[in-house]
Write a structure and sequence with these properties.
With 82 residues, the protein is mainly α. The protein has helices at 3-28, 33-61, 67-80. It has a single domain (3-80), classed as Metal-sensitive repressor, helix protomer (Methane Monooxygenase Hydroxylase, Chain G, domain 1, Up-down Bundle), CATH 1.20.58.1000. The chain contains 3 helices and no strands. It starts with a helix and ends with a helix.
């Protein structure tokens, strides 16, 4: 994985970690369920973005040189988006 991709993934994951902590606080504070659900959906979308970034990186740098790696990516995609 390129350094720029790794840095971007780590930054996104740290941001997601903060969002999850925020959701925990919302639950503890008994905030409205609709507000909590909206934040959970936001985290899910953010994680999906990390997944897409990782898969793109894998396709560009690993799978392009190996048919086995392409099969691996297809398997990852099919497991992730069932």
């Amino acid at each position: 994985m390129k350094d720029t991709t790794r840095d971007s993934v780590l930054l996104r994951l740290r941001r997601i970690e903060g969002q999850v902590r925020g959701i925990q606080r919302m639950v503890e504070e008994e905030r409205p369920c609709a507000d909590i659900v909206n934040q959970v959906a936001s985290v899910e979308q953010a994680l999906s973005g990390v997944t897409k970034l990782l898969l793109t990186s894998h396709l560009r740098h690993c799978a392009s040189s190996s048919p086995k790696a392409v099969d691996e990516v297809v398997d990852l995609i099919s497991r992730h988006w069932r």
